[in-house]
Amino acid sequence: MTISRNARMFLAALLGVGLAFIYIPLSVVVINSFNASKTFSWPPSRFTTIWWTKALENTGVREALKWSIFAGLSATAIALVLGTCLAFAVSRYQFFGREVISLLVVLPISLPGVVTGIALNNAFTKQLGMSTGLLTVVIGHATFCIVIVYNNAIARLRRMGTNLQEASMDLGANGITTFRLITLPNLASALFAGGLLAFGLSFDEIVVTTFTAGPGIQTLPIWIYNNLFRPNQAPIVNVVAATLVVLSVVPIYLSQRLSQDSTTGGRF
Amino acid sequence: MRLTALLTAPVLWLVVAYLGALAMLLVTAFFTIDSFTGNVIQQFNFGNFQDMLTDAAYKNVVLRTLGIAISVTFFCTVLAIPMAFYMAKIARPKTQKILVALVLTPLWASYLVKIYAWRTMLEPGNGVLDWLLKPIGIHSPGFGGPAIIIGLSYLWLPYMILPIYAGLERLPNNLLDASGDLGAHNFYTFRKVILPLIFPSLVAGSMFTFSLSLGDYITAQIIGGKLQMLGNVVYQNFSINLPFAATIATIPVTIMALYLYLVRRTGALASM
């Protein structure tokens, strides 16, 4: 395609500006975790790794990480089951209210988190008389994770079609065998991508968590939030933040190795 | 039979755990609280909505929030178009893959960490921005409205780049060549050929940037200074006056529903 050299250079420069905009703040976070100063000062005058050792020993961080992983895994497991069931129903059957379901499933992620948060809190504590805790966090997270799995699964199911399953049935396999040997293996990478995204979303969620966690449970984002304005905790917060920045490469690496349809994350 | 088995659990979950909770919240918006005990009085009335619509303070918050959401969408669009264009049409296939990964990666970095990063960037006096830009005479805007716009644009930029990138990838190169052959300049081709064809992508991206900004309150808490968005008003009323929080919460939901309706009418989503 013919684009003048000047136009190319101009666009490349804008791309550079955009990437700088994206990566300078993230780099600052990582560099700052080695900043020897206990209070914030930029540029750092000395560097140290002492905050990294301190953060590793910090019980609050460890507890929070444990809760985050537990809540993320539970919510992802629930979302995988419910999202896949829903995707099968919508892609393979015609029924009354099918359109409504595809709207219903995206609603939890489309409405502002604060609305979902106070709605769930009100329902759990005022209407059902439950106390907020790990269970309510998992229910809240699973609710908005369903759509992620659903989107990934339904895209794959639509592309797969039903020919392979019909062939399998024609050759005498029953429904369970066909599901186990044909459908599931074909669906697996989409489910993995969906599960990964759902876990990532849950792991990072703060708003709905604020309203469903109660005082006893601190997930990692809640821990960061609670310590953000405590000056003496700043070095530890910096390390946790830097760790999360560095770790964000892992899912990208995994999804790049997966099929192409999952590289945009299925969020679209 | 099999359909029922597939549908029961997920539909039950979404309807009971989610729609039920939303419906109860909506009903609560029509209740009031006992100003003495703070308990919710379950008596249906429109008092909260009257308060909300007559108090100028809330009108200002709505307008400010809308202004922020629109600005964020605008900045994301302006930044995303050239980036996506380079990625889709100029970069070599190998570079292209790397660029997509570079744009995607920050999506996985924690929301809070990104806003925290901007706190250290914007810190007036000894922040990174002041250190970087002082030599050319620019100062950090500090914490407030501009900071919120920068922070939210930063958070949602990838959500704008990716649909535009996808739209441009689908756009055949020979359309651009044809436009050039017919004598159109780069900018003219952009305005008359590219922009109309990627419009659905812009709309898709704006649904993220606009709606995610509309309901946000954490960013305003961390880098907004004293500035309040709709979400902050909901958050603050939540513990002291739940019915009123529910009433305010209907505003972003209504705006979003309206926005979705408009988007549907343009037919942009159908052609995605």
TrEMBL record, chain A:
One term under GO cellular component: plasma membrane
Coiled coil region boundaries: none
Locations listed in the record: Cell membrane
PROSITE patterns per UniProt: ABC_TM1
Gene3D superfamilies referenced in this protein's UniProt entry, alphabetically: MetI-like
SUPFAM superfamilies hit by this protein: MetI-like
UniProt keyword annotations, A-Z: Cell membrane, Membrane, Transmembrane, Transmembrane helix, Transport
GO biological process, one term: transmembrane transport
Transmembrane spans: 12-34, 67-88, 100-120, 132-150, 179-200, 206-224, 236-254
Domain ABC transmembrane type-1: from-to ranges: 65-255
InterPro entries, per the entry: Bact_Polyamine_Transport, MetI-like, MetI-like_sf
Membrane topology qualifier: Multi-pass membrane protein
Matching Pfam families: BPD_transp_1 (PF00528)
UniProt family annotation: Belongs to the binding-protein-dependent transport system permease family. CysTW subfamily.
Protein name in the entry: Unannotated protein
Source organism: freshwater metagenome
TrEMBL record, chain B:
Subcellular location: Cell membrane
Name under which the protein is recorded: Unannotated protein
Membrane-topology descriptor: Multi-pass membrane protein
Family, similarity comment: Belongs to the binding-protein-dependent transport system permease family. CysTW subfamily.
Regions crossing the membrane: 12-33, 61-86, 98-118, 138-157, 193-218, 238-262
The organism of origin for this protein: freshwater metagenome
Pfam families, sorted: BPD_transp_1 (PF00528)
SUPFAM superfamilies: MetI-like
Transmembrane helix found in the keyword field: yes
InterPro entries attached to this UniProt entry: MetI-like (IPR000515), MetI-like_sf (IPR035906)
Main location: membrane
UniProt keyword terms in alphabetical order: Cell membrane, Membrane, Transmembrane, Transmembrane helix, Transport
All copies of domain ABC transmembrane type-1, residue ranges: 62-263
GO CC field: plasma membrane
GO terms, biological process: transmembrane transport
